[in-house]
Amino acid sequence: MVMLVIFVIGSLAFLVASLDKATVKNERNRNTATALAMAKDALIARAVSDASSPGSLPCPDITGDGVAQTATDCTYYIGRLPWKTLGLPRLTDSHGQELWYALSRNFRDDSSNNPLNSDSSGDLIISGSPSANNVIAIVFAPGPNLNGQSRSSNSINCLTTGNSQPENLCAASYLEGSNANLDTKTNLNVQFVADDATDTFNDQLIYIINANLLPSVEKRIAREVKQCLDDYAAISSEKYPWAAPVSSMSYTSTTNTRFGRIPTVPQIFISGLISGDSGYSSLMSKLNALDNAEQACRSNDNLQSALTNAANQLLTFLNTLSDPPYSATFINQARAAASAALPGNSYSQPCDYIDNHSVNQVRSNLNQANSTLGTLDTQSPQDSTMSDVWPASCKPLPASSYWNAWRNLVFYEVHDHYRPNGSKSCGATASPNCMTIIGNASPEISPSPRAAVLIAGKNLNTIVRNPANLSDYLEGINSAVPATGTLETYKLEDQADKQINDVIVCADGLGRNQYSKCK
Asked: Exposed, middle or buried by CB within 10 Å (0-12, 13-18, 19+), for 257?
């Protein structure tokens, strides 16, 4: 009995000791995991809110003071976590060691030489368990020293930087395996490793990839554009400007274009910017060609072929024009001038001057057409209650340092009732529905949006995006039938299944920071 009691007591003591060790280990793991998660969240928040280059991250701390290096091209792309720069307390793992941080060079904070948008991916790779590609940043908890690592202030030849560094600023004194490899601007280390703890490896890590970061940046860009549009509507009778056609890379707002990209200047004229229309210069060259051929005919009856050619080119081009911005009167007058210049119309040879009737008819119709065109190009406002400039509060349009990186991925649709001269009749109690947003993402702002901002997510195809091709950017309804008043968007976890990753934020004239569900 005595031996049995001793055995039970010994077993219980061993069990309690084992449980204590397991409890301590689990608690340490939780503390380390909490520190790593805080660092990851702070890095993402910093990237999303960056003023000059949304999505970018600071350089590592290479001096040990908690402050990121301020160079636009980091001296080293691995170092300590810059906790002061991130607004964090001094984070440590469960062994009291400060966290380390590796950054993908193409996500550095350098808006001039490093444009970032939805298609940007990190260049770091993590092998082992877990493994990941296209990693943007990694945060390491180094744990206690292993393999004879020393972490004093004494200088050594640092294996990571390739030069003399204090031991406590050298990654090789804290990290193991490929995590400690040579990592300089001329020899960047992009291969890192994750694994279970052993006697020779005890790094714990957390990482950031495109899906963790860029969707939040896309929402930030969409909100800024939304706020600009709502600020514009606030000084424009609650109405929104025409969009810039997707097919044109001039970013020129065009009359009757309700779906497209954000224009550099808001357009509210009937045709006043007919002279800025993408087809205007071609029209003028064809009118001038017919004018010159008609005048040449008056001095040389043998120039009929030149007159016929000019007339046919003008007739073909007139078929591409619409009313508005070009009036039906102008189109008919120009067509009459071209038709009078063709053989078989009025006279078999319009250059024949038996009585000059045919060329006189060409001249008369040309004069009428040019006169009508001149009245169209007066820049008379289509809606005098609307502004022809963006308000000063518009941050991203068009002067921000990062707008050029995003402008091809940002699209905009205005409901027909809230375009220039719109009736503003939807959105009221009697007629509540303006635009319709389908899907399960609960896009922000308004139960009855008057306009919507769309941000193209990461390229879902392997092709190089053609800026003039809408389907290279948007998916589903968003790419198939623009300006229908119906768009779709989905939660991040459903985007892969739906093959639609467009972010939508709706505008309703409420102005800044007025966010509610879109449907």
From this structure: buried
